[in-house]
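Record now logged for everyone:
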Amino acid sequence: MNANITRLFEIASKPARLIVGLMSGTSVDGLDVALCKCSGAGIDTKLEIINFETVPYDDAFKKEVKSVFSRRDADLEKVCLLNSWIALQHANIISACLKKWKVAPAAVDLIASHGQTIYHAPKFLHKQPTFSNATLQIGDGDHIAFNTGIITISDFRQKHIAAGGEGAPLAVYGDYLIFSKAGENRIMLNIGGIANFTFLPGDLDAVRVFSSDTGTGNTLMDAYVQAHFPGKYFDQGAKIASAGKVNEGLLASLKENSFFKMGFPKTTGPELFNAAYLERARVLSGTGPLQHEDMMATLNRFSADTIVNAIKKNADELENVIIYTSGGGMHNPLLMENIQDQLPGFLFRTTDQLAIDPDAKEAVLFAILANECVAGGQIRVGDGKTGIPFVSMGKISFPL
């Protein structure tokens, strides 16, 4: 038997595994690195975060990724080059974190790498009848494995698509395994570049578990700040948006898109919600030049309203619902105020109260997916007809 297969069998047979979970989101602000201890599998999964850090990307990294990110005219040679280059950057970051945490690479069982999304193309968006859903994450797992010496699980989204899904959101699988609680209906709301939520029923019925994107989270706000405030990457503390007023005409036009008329679940990305989307809405509404503060206030409200609308459509008649927030958007006080004001019947908490750092949640969830890939594989979530296929995900890369 190949020594790598023997090693993998040993890891799968252990009562607990040490896994490094990685997440690099569409905001391209940094790499989330979560060192997790995972024991058991499936509904018996137990997880402890040993260490966590978000390592900011420098301007050179951001520039390289943005040269191909969400662009239909991306340079194919650059995509090829970045596939390995990003993996090497991530491998270096992992090694530096382990050294800082005084953890020997040999003590780590697995790395779970989400990679860097550069294009998301669900069928409703590309509208080409010959082709199905598609998505692309780069940051090759073989390069990470070889340069860290640690077995790496990566490219999770492809199996989801192969089984009939759209490649997102994947949080539903991990959410169900570690956040479900008898007697409490929970919504796990993650506000990253794109916002998504998972519904976890209090009766623990896996068939009722549900997950979907809602639309833009931080993407449009971040893009506007980066275009008009050199040196800034986001509206820290919502200072810009808080100084403005919502333009109701523009807000109404922003909501006029077929995406919001589609049923759930659905996925989207910056391929739809970008500067061109904002410009079309401005023209459609006949909106003239706005103060930056007013534009940001309107974009902030747009994100909030679409999140609220999605939650109401899927959970408005439920009782005893608690919304647990995570992701960068939870740090935007105006966004959270705009959401909470429209959902007075819901309680709001963060995943801190579930012993999971909200900023670490997505990296942790990929660690769980890697754990399932190796030691589980019996997840039964959703009803098989809601874009949540019954699959274990991830491709295995050996160090040698």
Notes: The mean pLDDT is 94.
